[in-house]
Amino acid sequence: MKIIRTANYEEMSTKAAQFMLDRIQTNPELKLGLATGGTPKGVYKKLIEDHKQNNTTYKNIITLNLDEYIGIDSSNLNSYHYFMKEQLFDHIDIPSTQTHLPNGTAKDLLEECSRYESLLKKVGGIDLQLLGIGENGHIGFNEPGTPFDSTTHLIELEENTRQANARFFDTIEEVPTHAITMGIASIMASKEILLLASGEAKAEAIHKLINGAIDESFPASALKRHENVTIIADEEALKLL
Ligand code: F6R
Questions:
Q1: Helix ranges (DSSP H) in 27-122
Q2: What is the per-residue pLDDT across 132-189, written as a single tens digit (0 to 9) for each?
Q3: Where is the Glucosamine/galactosamine-6-phosphate isomerase domain (predicted)?
Q4: What number is the average pLDDT over the span 226-230?
Q5: Which residue from 231, 241, 158 is spatially nearest to 198, judged by alpha carbons?
Q6: What does the pLDDT look like over 5-30, one tens digit per residue?
Q7: Nearest CA to ligand 1 atom 11
Q8: How many A from CA of 3 to the centre of ligand 1?
Q9: Which of 23, 131, 145, 170 could link 195 by a cystine bridge, Cβ 3.0 to 4.6 Å?
Q10: What does residue 154 show for φ and ψ, rounded to 5 degrees?
Q11: pLDDT band, very low/low/confident/very high, at 224 (cuts 50, 70, 90)
Q12: Which of 81, 100, 138, 153 is catalytic?
């Protein structure tokens, strides 16, 4: 795993956007795996700025997000569908038919998991997957204990994950208890992975990722078996290394 150290969140976002733009320029038909949460917001802002200044086009890009809450409609402000539109899709020229997220309100959720996993294969696999990391080492919503051979599946969110995400909701009760997420195997099938981490709250997770064992109790540790992972993280997130 290659580590790129940055001074702060701003620089992490700039470097990550440059990294992604480099891949988009090399392959204008890139299949791009995306993440939500606080970490990638700055990157999306930079991509939007670049789109306005340099006209980088996303007309032939296909995006596939990692996850979505269960039971929250795409028009709900807290859904990841809404987040992605607001933070990125509405501000670049990507056709909406080329942006994909799991449907957390599908009637048959198991069927939805298979549909999404097949979609990953149908598009030819993800070229570059952007990841954040949970304080407990989750990637996507793969909580500790998720099998490394898991594909897109339903998951019950850990209490600390719900608490960490409660900042986006009015009350903790509103945070969904379940989500649909690409599995560890789905993520590992990506040709390249870019993991971002910022802030002291992620320092322990990054320390464990770099120095700890490869074990299902720490989902991100699976990434050590991937041959093309880059971590861009700021000083605070790297402070225990
Ligand atoms: C989001 C996702 C999660 C987040 C992680 C970190 O799509 O899959 O794994 O990347 O929970 O979240 P933030 O960036 O809010 O600290």
A1: 41-54, 80-87, 109-122
A2: 999 999 999 999 999 999 999 999 998 988 998 888 898 999 999 999 999 999 999 9
A3: 11-229
A4: 98
A5: 231
A6: 999 999 999 999 999 999 999 999 99
A7: 134
A8: 19
A9: 131
A10: -90, 145
A11: very high
A12: 138
Both tokens assigned to 69: 């809450």
Q: Taking residues 73-102, report their average pLDDT.
A: 97
Q: Is 141 in the pocket of ligand 1 (CB under 6 A)?
A: yes
133 Cα to the center of ligand 1, angstroms:
6
Residues 68-95, buried b or exposed e (16+ Cβ, 10 A)?
A: bbbebeeeeebbbbbbbbebbbebbebe
The structural domains of the chain, ordered by start, are: 2-234 (3.40.50.1360)
User: What ipTM was reported for this prediction?
Assistant: 0.99
Residue nearest to atom 3 of ligand 1 (CA): 140
d(CA 112, CA 181): 11
What angle (nearest 5°) sits at the alpha carbon of residue 146, between those of residues 142 and 149?
105
Span from the CA of 38 to the centroid of ligand 1 (angstroms): 7
Q: Is residue 221 helix, strand or coil?
A: helix
Residue with the two structure tokens 């990054």: 206
List the catalytic residue out of 51, 117, 127, 136. 136
CA nearest ligand 1 atom 10, residue: 132
What's the whole-model pTM score?
A: 0.97
Three-state DSSP class for 45? helix
Q: What is the rounded distance in angstroms from the CA atom of residue 155 to the CA atom of residue 140?
A: 11
| DSSP 8-state assignment for residue 227 | S
The DSSP call for residue 1 is -
